[in-house]
Write a structure and sequence with these properties.
The structure holds 2 protein chains of 2 kinds. By secondary structure, chain A is an alpha+beta fold. In chain B, a hairpin with an 8-residue loop joins β16 and β17 (about 210-215). Classes of the chains: A alpha+beta, B mainly beta.
Chain lengths: ~650, ~240
């Protein structure tokens, strides 16, 4: 019903008119579902090629795509990749393509469809995708890339946020250089918020008489939730539970940190300049309790100091001078560099020079594959795994696209860390700093989530080496409400000065009532979150699988889950076909980073759940002591074998 | 605050009140030999009633010197400091914090139990009042067992009774008010007039409390406690009591 659409007149010079461009996101407890819908009409007397080109966040799962071309509807289904390809080859759609390509822009991937439409024909595209919002540096960031390509008669973006914990703040930064100042309308309640962005055609114009649209960029919504309890928020709904854990008010744990920096020839120029700039700030941010050193490598491996040193002002100044003098040249010997860093940390640990309450981190910054020394990636992986002590976490930052990012991910995931891609541009320095800031404040070590009930199954990774301030650990699982009416969790962890056991109980009745009152709330958020985590973790396990048989088994599980949950994963493809089934398109997922979880800071392990550790049972408890002593028979009072101070 | 002192040998409860000013810190247990301090800081009600401002314990400080641990329990948070680092819990958590020697167990919105070396324990109860109550404020109660784990030098308003004084209560007689008999009590060389009364123990019923019959010592425990109650003021939450 395009003619009925409300909206202002756009110039009709363009043969294809964009009638409507609508984006709607709903976020329910960190689970975001986004729909992008675009309606166009060919006003010219000639057939026209119409493109639907949208960017979706990396790591998002596409769940649905529909298209109506001149009255013919195409709907999508998820198939195993080879099945999908075979179907596609049987009945390719004429004059239509659908694809999905990995984009080289930051954190985004392109989904692209092109159709040829006859004169006067209308076309409607609709894409759905799901993602999980990971907390970084104290907030969640929801980005919607808006690129309608032309002025739209009706442009509308709505973001609905439902967070049962309540929202601490919500902010829509100006990402359009002031062009749309005052256009986003924010309404925020305690637990719900709505951001609406509806620029008129006049507002969309780049300049008063321009036909070009200024809507080309990201609408960003940032928010954080309230956290009353350290033990986190345990939400149970529809047979699944999700547990969000982001404690605050803990002192940072001292860290022993080794920066391993690639200074090979390929780093020459902007990459090195930006790395040096970032390192200077990072070194300044070290705390006095921290210990550090710097290893720089090309075909040779050098160290600023052979041992870890305290992060005093003098040492930091000296390290900065050392880094500033680095001249990139030569090859890349990642193997030797990592082994040297591990040796320094291992030696310090063996000699008792490390604070037993500290955490040890290696941050590798590299822009390329090894070219000198050990070249075989699997051998490097093996060497590192064999040498590294199990209290060290390895984080890898891959600059640019010449680096085998999957290798870095495997390397880090296997050694209690994660990898992140850094884009080699003017922004490299801030990306490096941002990543460092995420891991600069370890608050807890050895964080284990226990759900010691028979009613809880299929728990996602529940053991994490570290917890860093500003982030959030998410654990999910299945729950059988017929066996128990509530879920209990027991988290054990080590903070800077103590062992910690945190208990919490779910409050499912409240949540059900709360969600039922909101039409935008996604009742499947627990299920989606569980599936998202499980599939990503299985993909990472698959990439680290030691045998082909294990890999096959994991593949089978991922595939089945992808089909059950109707999502495109690296093992599935989306077949888009018309009702008659004689025209098909294929949307294949890009070769993805086979590791958990895009955007998440944690890669954990799975361990069996246990009860409260024995040390945490206070002995004797005041109550048991009281009972053990017993009440005096003459008085109907509690036993009084205590001295006490109270108020009337 | 009202104090209920249980004397195991004579199997009697003796009560007294301490009325002071908000901000003052009272020494409850001070044992320099064992390195244990328990102090309580007073807070006031929102306003005075009948010309009198009620005071309550708003903050309790525990210092375990040998373990190098300081624990501050307020009506808002429970904070454990050790060396230069701090761990903080809110009353919204059910949690256990500790190491091999000190254990802090928090029962969400109810109580904190501190256990030292699995043999000495203190219990703190949280009393929440309606936030908009015109007068009352949240406050804390503390419970300690009269056990012989302290050194002979232990003192403080509670600590001094860890070693039981000899008491003799006699000449029970009708009091000025019906149902509140009086008696004479000999303790620490003093002869006092005490009144039979009831005080609240909130361990089993945190809202209404349970009445504990006790002999009430007037004038802020004068004669029953060593010296004057003002002798128990300490400058800091973790100060040992300096004995005159």
């Amino acid at each position: 019903s395009l003619p009925e659409e409300s909206g202002e007149e756009t110039d009709t010079v363009d043969p294809v008119t964009l009638y409507s461009y609508k984006v709607q996101s709903t976020i329910t407890s960190r689970v975001a579902t986004t729909t992008i819908q675009s309606k166009l009409v060919n006003n010219s007397p000639l057939p026209q090629s119409v493109v639907f080109d949208v960017q979706i966040p990396k790591g998002a799962f596409i769940s649905n795509f529909t298209m109506t071309v001149n009255g013919m509807t195409f709907t999508s289904s998820i198939k195993e990749k080879t099945v999908g390809r075979a179907l596609y080859s049987q009945a390719r759609a004429k004059g239509k393509t659908a694809g999905w390509v990995r984009s080289r822009t930051l954190d985004m991937e392109n989904f692209n469809t092109e159709v040829n439409i006859p004169p006067g024909a209308k076309v409607q595209f609709e894409l759905h995708y799901q993602e999980v919002k990971w907390r970084k540096l104290g907030s969640y960031e929801h980005k919607i890339h808006l690129q309608p390509g032309k002025l739209a008669k009706h442009l509308e973006v709505n973001v609905w946020i439902i967070e049962p914990q309540g929202m601490r703040f919500l902010h829509v930064p100006d990402t359009f250089e002031g062009h749309f100042q005052g256009v986003p309308v924010i309404s925020k309640g305690q637990q719900k918020a709505h951001v609406s962005f509806k620029p008129t055609v006049a507002q969309q114009r780049k300049c008063p008489n321009c036909t070009e649209t200024a809507v080309n960029g990201e609408l960003v919504v940032m928010y954080d939730v309230n956290r009353e309890e350290k033990a986190g928020e345990l939400e149970v709904f529809n047979g699944y539970f999700v547990h969000f854990f982001a404690p605050e008010n803990l002192d940072p744990i001292p860290k022993n940190i080794l920066f391993v920096i690639d200074v090979s020839g390929s780093m020459w120029g902007i990459k090195m300049k930006q790395t040096v700039e970032a390192m200077k700030t990072i070194l300044d941010d070290l705390r006095t309790d921290d210990q550090f050193s710097v290893v720089d490598f090309n075909h040779n491996v050098r160290t600023w100091r052979n041992d870890l040193v305290s992060a005093t002002k003098t040492q930091i100044a000296d390290a900065k001078r050392y880094i500033e003098k680095i001249q990139p040249s030569g090859g890349t010997n990642i193997n030797e560099a990592l082994l040297r860093a591990i040796f320094i940390l291992n030696e310090a640990s063996n000699m008792g020079l490390l604070n037993p309450d500290s955490v040890s981190l290696i941050i590798l910054v590299s822009d390329g594959d090894p070219t000198v020394g050990e070249l075989k990636l699997s051998k490097i992986q093996k060497n590192v795994k064999q040498s590294i002590q199990d209290n060290i976490s390895l984080f890898s930052l891959g600059i640019g696209f010449d680096v085998d990012y999957d290798f870095l991910k495997r390397l880090s995931n296997e050694n209690r860390g994660i990898a992140q891609r850094i884009y080699g541009n003017q922004d490299t320095s801030s990306q490096l700093k941002k990543f460092y800031n995420q891991v600069s404040t370890p608050l807890l070590r050895n964080v284990q989530f226990n759900y010691p009930q028979a009613s809880v199954t299929d728990v996602t990774q529940n053991n994490f080496h570290n917890y860093f301030g500003g982030s959030e650990i998410v654990v999910a699982g299945k729950f059988d409400p017929s066996k128990l009416t509530e879920v209990q969790s027991i988290i054990t962890a080590t903070s800077a000065n103590t062992e910690l056991v945190l208990e919490t109980l779910s409050q499912m009745d409240d949540l059900e009532e709360f969600l039922s009152k909101d039409k935008h709330a996604d009742p499947d958020f627990t299920k989606k979150l569980w599936a998202y985590l499980t599939i990503n973790q299985l993909l990472a396990e698959r990439s680290l699988a030691p045998t082909a048989a294990i890999k096959r088994k994991i593949t089978k599980t991922i595939l089945q889950m992808s089909l059950d949950h109707h999502i495109v994963t690296p093992l599935t493809a989306m077949v888009i076909e018309n009702d008659a089934g004689d025209e098909r398109m294929l949307a294949d997922s890009p070769p993805q980073d086979h590791s958990c979880c895009s955007g998440a800071l944690y890669y954990g392990t799975k361990v069996a759940s246990g009860p409260i550790p024995s040390w945490a049972n206070p002995s004797p408890t005041p109550m048991s002591a009281m009972l053990a002593v017993g009440a005096k028979p003459l008085e109907s009072t509690p036993p009084t074998h205590l001295n006490q101070v109270e108020n009337d | 605050p009202h104090f209920i002192i249980y004397l195991p040998k004579s199997k009697r409860n003796i009560c007294f009140n301490i009325d002071s000013e908000p901000g003052k810190i009272l020494s409850l247990v001070s044992d320099p030999e064992s390195g244990i301090v328990v102090n309580g800081q007073l807070i006031g009600a929102k306003r005075a009633e009948n010309g009198k401002l009620s005071t309550y314990f708003g903050k309790l400080g525990f210092y375990f010197q040998k373990e190098g641990m300081k624990i501050e329990i307020s009506t808002e948070t429970i904070t454990l400091s050790s060396g230069s680092s701090t761990s903080r819990l809110s009353w919204s958590d059910t949690a256990h914090l500790g190491n091999s020697r000190v254990l802090i167990s928090v029962k969400k919105e109810k109580s904190v139990t501190l256990t030292l070396n699995k043999e000495l324990f203190f219990s703190v109860l949280l009393h929440r009042v309606w936030r908009k109550h015109p007068v009352n404020v949240d406050f804390l109660g503390i419970y300690a067992p009269p056990i012989d784990k302290f050194s002979p030098r232990v003192h403080g308003l509670l600590g001094q009774f860890m070693q039981e004084p000899a008491i003799h209560i006699f000449n029970e007689r009708p009091g000025k008010e019906p149902g509140k008999p009086e008696a004479s009590m000999e303790v620490k060389g003093h002869k006092l007039t005490v009144t039979r009364g009831l005080q609240k123990d909130y361990r089993t019923d945190i809202v209404f409390g349970t009445d504990v019959p006790c002999w009430f010592v007037h004038n802020s425990g004068k004669g029953f406690i060593d010296g004057h109650y003002k002798d128990y003021f300490v400058p800091q939450l973790y100060s040992f009591l300096k004995r005159p």
